[in-house]
Write a structure and sequence with these properties.
Blueprint (H helix, E strand, L loop, with lengths): L5 E3 L11 H10 L11 H6 L13 H18 L2 E3 L12 E5 L9 H18 L3 E5 L13 H10 L9 H12 L5 E6 L8 H8 L4 E8 L6 E8 L4 E7 L7 E8 L5 E9 L5 E6 L3 H4 L4 E4 L8 E3 L7 E7 L14 H7 L3 E4 L6 H10 L4 E5 L6 H12 L3 E5 L2 H6 L15 E2 L10 E2 L19 E2 L1 E2 L12 E4 L5 E8 L2 E6 L14 H13 L10 H4 L5 E5 L5 E2 L24 E5 L2 E5 L20 E5 L6 E2 L1 H22 L5 H24 L1 H7 L6 H9 L4 E3 L4 H21 L8 E3 L11 E5 L9 H12 L3 E5 L15 H10 L7 E3 L26 E3 L21 E4 L3 H5 L16 H20 L2 H4 L3 H7 L3
Parallel strand pairs: 3-4, 3-5, 5-6, 6-29, 14-15, 14-16, 16-17, 17-24, 31-32, 31-33, 33-34, 34-37
Antiparallel strand pairs: 1-2, 2-30, 7-8, 8-11, 9-10, 9-12, 12-13, 18-21, 19-20, 22-23, 23-24, 25-26, 25-27, 27-28, 35-36
Helix pairs in contact: 1-3, 3-15, 4-5, 6-7, 9-13, 10-11
Length: 941
Amino acid sequence: MSWLPLSFGAPMVLWGLLALPVIWWLLRLTPPKPQTEVFPPLKILARVLKREETPQQSPWWLTLLRLLMAALVVAALAEPVFNPREKLPAEGAALALVIDNDWASAADWGKRVATAQRLIADAGSNGVPVVIAFTAEKPNAEIGPFDAAAALDRLRAAKPRPIPTDRPAVYARVAGVLETLPGASVAVLADGLAAKGDEAAFNTLLSKNAARVVWASSDRLALTGLTGAENQVDGFALTAIRAPGDPAPAQVTAGAFDDKGRRIADATLTFAPGETTATGTMAVPFELRNDFASIALDGERQAGAVRVLDESSKRRRVGLLSQAEADQAQPLLSPLYYIRRALQPFADLVEPSSADLADAIPQLLDQKPAMIVMADIGTIPPQVHQRLVDWVDNGGTLVRFAGSRLAAAGNDDDLLPVRLRTGERSLGGSLSWTTPQAVTEFPKNGPFADLSPPAEVTVSRQVLAEPTPDIVERTWATLADGTPLVTGLKKGKGTLVLFHITPEATWSTLPISGSFVEMLRRIVQLSRNQGAAVANAEAAATSLAPYRMIAADGTLVPPTPDARPLVPVAGPLPVTFENPPGLYGSETGVFAHNLLDPATAFAPLVRPQFAVPVTNIQYAFDESRDLKGSLVTAALVLMLLDTLAVFWMGGLLSRRPRRARTAAATTAALLLGLGILLGHADLARADDAKPGDTAAIEDIAKTRIAYVLTGVPGDDSISRAGLEGLTHFLIEKTALEPGAPAGVDISKDELSFYPLIYWPIDPSAPMPSEAAIARIDAYMQQGGTVLFDTRDQFANGIGADSASPATERLRDILGNLNVPPLEPVPSDHVLTKSFFILPEFPGRFAGSPLWVEASLDASNAENRPVRVGDGVSPILITANDFAGAWAVDENGDPLLPTVPSDPMQRIYALRAGVNIMMYMLTGNYKSDQVHVPILLERLGQ
């Protein structure tokens, strides 16, 4: 019946149900075993007048039970499946499985994997090889062909990537493999999102021996992405997009998060019916908008719905100052008119209420602006001059425009980037041009380096700078005759900028050009106290290290090992496998590299027309259930009931034996209770438990790393935090799950419970007693290892003639121990490859070698290519402060900085700790692996 969600893998077995009548007939003719009775004379006399009856057939209920049991066995052998899935076409010479694992596939990645698993399982049942390729992986990733088991392993190891697909390159590689596999089936598991070059890519894929196509797709393209997040005057403007073809209106909620992941603002974006773009504004205060670190759409678990923000998204407060009277009738002649129009889109403008500079400048400084623009300000009052200088030194940006007042005021060395000549240069003057001057190429050392020179701009009047040896370095824009148009200078933490023209269109046409807006925007970027990572051309020419990455599911994660530094250039930057979306730079400044740019639009992927047979399937989980095990279990339960029924009918479960067993059990219980009461004292005397046994059992229940309690609180807390950080790293990266670190007092605690004891040497700590050192010596002779850490890398080393206090204390301790000969870890030592491949063993410091027991047969490299393979060194010595590099706080953040400040040094230190633990626990296991081929050869295998 088609309506019944049940199928059978071996339906022919169901013909066995026809044997049920025969079984019924046999059971009816086979009487149960007669009941055996012990001879009871009086009972026989009591029943002497009763008719003797012997059953001639099994009772109906027992027959029904056995028939049901037989039916269940037959049904189980027929391999029934509830809610069976359709058999997928995975036959032919091979199955080529091409899977999109880009950011658009992250939301329903589980369904895609389940669909691919069914295809691989069907291919494995048909015995055909599988070619499996992912469109968002490395270009050199292996694609097969593989057997079904290996293909499943690669499928389980794959994960969605936060980058677009590269279908043309991947499809071309698959087509190349299919040239040797004629008649293969090709399964395309697409993300439903169209991309450039898809048509040519599909033609290439199917041009080589494809006999059948399996096209898997979702019901519809249900993606929503965030393409714009701009900090404007009245709020943060957001732009979201969706795929076309949805006539229903929709709303999405966007949340803004700070750098600690806290949600601080919301906004609702509404898609009108049939519209693919929605906009909204987060109307929050200026100060709160500057705390935004990322914006994400709720409910969208993919990288396209997240947008990270850098300093360029933060609006700056800019103060405007002018001494000219505002003419309401002629606003175009106002010195601040063009400056206001240029800065309003990306800055919050503030102006003083007083026209007196002595009051106006403090009013502006009290509002803490990032930049102040002075339009033709001559002499600055002495009472506020120093305060303005201090503001620049502390990170402020002062932008000044020339004019008649500044030209006549003379030089103000503290607040001008260059020295000025008195007077001005104009057409018809003593220093005059015959024609207006144009702007030439912008110097490469300034913030306008990537801008094109404005061809329409001319300058007819300017103030000149005194020629000095450093005038070229301070010039940001020049005229055709080589004189400066814009000069700039770093002063303290701030910047001084001078436009050698007026801000209105009287001396130049620059204020009415588009280049004027872009130049002011670049200077606003420079005004940030901490600055973006690419705030100037010098930083833009360098590469930026990965800082925080956007994962495929939209979460912010640490950089992956595949991420590479980003080199910012003008224009949109491509999102690639080596440069995934996220933040690049460091804590001092980051650059936002987002997945979607403002011009992005979602287009559904339309299935191409194929010349070969096509099977359409939907992404779905496998909901089929195999009933064979359940039916076999039910049959076994019925068999147990049948056995009990036979025992009961045979008298084994009759009343009298039960009473006898009950009486016996009661007697045994009474005897046991009496024995317990009478022998209570003996049982108490037999208890050989000792104080401390419980603590000892807890210590050996899990592998734990110990550290020596030195009595110095700072050292002991760092040791514990460091070993906790190493323990977490071991649990994350290895199969070892150590317990919490243990602090030990070497004078009295049991040391044999711990494979490794970390001992930080502090000259201020008390010198251990001779008994304590003897306990350490016995611990090392019994197989334990002590890791001594002098933490004095930047003092004199272990072998120096003039040693540090920590090294001197270590020598005093080692003088009472049986220490073997030591050597720095050789390059071929087991420690360098026990888990990670490590050329060195840094800690919080780098440079000190790790000392181990010297190998006595190190020269015999042919016999044993891995050194020191017959045991574990009982002593390790370093000066790199391992615990300081491993130490983490309650949130898992590092406690101490590394020296030098290199993020990878801490990773290498943790890997060194993993190698040491693996070396402690495996001993010569790693080195003995080199003899496995020889042993197998001698055994004849």
